[in-house]
Amino acid sequence: MLKTLPEEVEAYRDRAWRREPEARVETAVEAEKLVEAAGFCATMTDARRPGPSLYVAVCGRRDAHMPRNVQKDPESSSTWVLKDELMRRGRVYYAKLTKNRATFVARRLVPHFNSLWGVARRSEASALSADARAVLKVLRKEWEMATCDLREESKVTDRPRFT
Fold first, then answer.
1. Which helix (H) or strand (E) holds 40?
2. pTM for the whole thing?
């Protein structure tokens, strides 16, 4: 049996997660504000999954469902473009976390998400590849880096090895 939440809770979520037409997300700056306000945000999930979602915020409605043919859907396309723009701007953290789902995380919450989904230091040697350890070593010294600088510093210049 699926329990529904009280309407006051859903109304609060509508405002906080931009599920209202007048508050819908249209720009990268608005998307960054959504991630900062919510703390985290799924990227391409629809109303069938709980939590804040960039796709639902772009649609501006709580009942948004991803269409079968996403290539021709303007809201899906807009979300995809915004996702790429957010990654390029680098003001929020992007990772595939729970169940390998693309997620944006506010910078202030990265340590907390790392404690939940990260690899413990004592397990790094066995859990991470040599390339991943090289990248991690550089990132521990310099938190913010452009991708090209990170590749150069870690000496992992081959794209498939880097990703």
1. strand 40-42
2. 0.77
